[in-house]
Amino acid sequence: MTDEVIILIAEDDAGHATLIQKNLRRAGLRNQIIHFLNGQEILDFLFRTGNGPQRDAGRSYLLVLDIRMPKVDGVEVLRRIKADPDLRKLPVTMLTTTEDPNEIERCHMLGCSNYVTKPVDYNKFIEAIRQLGLFFTIVQVPSIS
Predict the structure, then answer these.
(1) In what order do the strands lie in the sheet with 6-10?
(2) C-alpha span between 32 and 61 (Å, rounded)
(3) Which among 36, 117, 131, 135 could bridge 41 via Cys, Cβ 3.0 to 4.6 Å?
């Protein structure tokens, strides 16, 4: 992945968001990372609504999306992204504590790129994020309009 790709993290748990960022850095990623606290914030950014920051056309983004978030949950965020002609090619990694096979299948049916379960064990969580970071170093990310 090139440095031009901006990593978006939509995660309401500040501790998890910090761990994700630190371990993506430990995996060698130096990309800009933008953190969003809820589903509405990431939707406002991507769809260029609201008063906060908004995405730039022609930039490449990669989204790490928690499922359980306030205001708008991650599954609904994913559904809206994949329904939009400009945003549907945005790679979305679902990151959540649930291992419910129905939830996993639903996210894949909606178009997520991959699904990572947050282990409850701290060391396993760190290792999962490190592996995700290594994956991000080789993935090709398209720009979005």
Answers:
(1) 33-36, 6-10, 61-66, 92-96, 114-117
(2) 10
(3) 36
